[in-house]
């Protein structure tokens, strides 16, 4: 599927108890680009991400995927066109790697042979050996699990890829490995990608554009190359806060 | 000993069969009601408290009293076995209902999240993720229900529904311990068997993570 653009238009979201998690967020993400939603825990960046595949329904405002309002779409069709990767991987523990990866094809009613072939293709894409296809998630390392999660998200050839702190639970070495793999992969597949992270380095390394979210409001929206030299007050503070000199 | 078996063997076999039939039918009914109802409660959590409450109360009624209370009910009271099956179904309902409900609710929220994000319909999520993930908990409920049922079914003999309780009641009335044991031992073995088989299935279905 061709990459689709994503647009948030005056989006707000309130919890049932009245707390406001997102406040009048407007943002247009061009098709085929990678945008990082940066911010600390509780900033609302994950909530913002989850409005795209309608796991969260906006209180007011609109989310448009490929120009179509999410609220008016058939939610199942919408979600099948959007890849979703989370920190916990969410691999189905009772299914083999192959079945996990082929799930979007299984849901679309594709024949087994096609699912198997797709799984092998996707495993190769994320740098995993086809021999892992018959394993169960508990037999994999954390990094391998995350790769399988990514393979599953891409197997349905989505127009948009959503990633929520995908490497948050990995050790620094595996994390760096995954970032290298993902960066290369994103360039190759050209999906519209939204990646939620609190890690500035990760955002700069993976994304074309960095959007800083604080208490449900977008406070900075910069090209990745401009972040470090930016005069934007909020971004300057975030950069300073995540950079610490080690006194020896 | 051999004399005892010569005299009572055929009876023990017949009553054991009756016992299995009573519990088996009750379990079928209870599962047919409890499993879908348990799933329904996870979809409409507002109903969970009242429905589980009723099942809970049902469970606390002493079995002998429940059999007695149902006796005057038309249709049910006509045949003792019919009445016994209905009462046993009531007893088996709670563990099945509770475990189905709790089992499905205990599925990792991240898996539910991903299932939805993959574009599963509610039914697909149930069949592909929720039921397999909670199968061992649901089976544990079936196991508890079956073992309870096998025990309570001995009381059904008091209203003439048959089963191994008949030997026990006769033995008690005639102060014949041999007769009591002739009913109690097969009943205990049935319970152990059911427990073993379902316990084995429960382990097999447990998902390793």
Determine the mean pLDDT of chain A: 93
Order of helices and strands of chain A: EEEHEEHEHHHHEHEHEEH
The greatest inter-chain interface is formed by: A-B, 26 and 19 residues
Structural class of chain B: mainly alpha
Q: Assign a percent range to the helix content of chain A.
A: 25-40%
What is the rounded Rg of chain B?
20 Å
Mean pLDDT of chain B: 92
Task: Give a description of the structure.
- The complex is a heterodimer of chains A (248) and B (209).
- Chain A is 35% helix and 25% strand.
- Chain A is an alpha/beta fold and 248 residues long.
- Chain A has a 6-stranded mixed beta sheet with strand order 6-7-8-3-9-10, with helices on both faces. Chain A has a 4-stranded antiparallel beta sheet with strand order 2-1-4-5, with helices on one face.
- Chain B is an all-alpha fold and 209 residues long.
- Chain B has 8 helices and no strands.
- In chain B, helix 1 (2-43) packs parallel to helix 8 and helix 2 packs across helix 4.
- The longest helix of chain B is centred in the N-terminal third of the chain and has 42 residues, at 2-43.
- Chains A and B meet through helix 2, strand 6 and helix 4 of A and helix 5 and helix 6 of B.
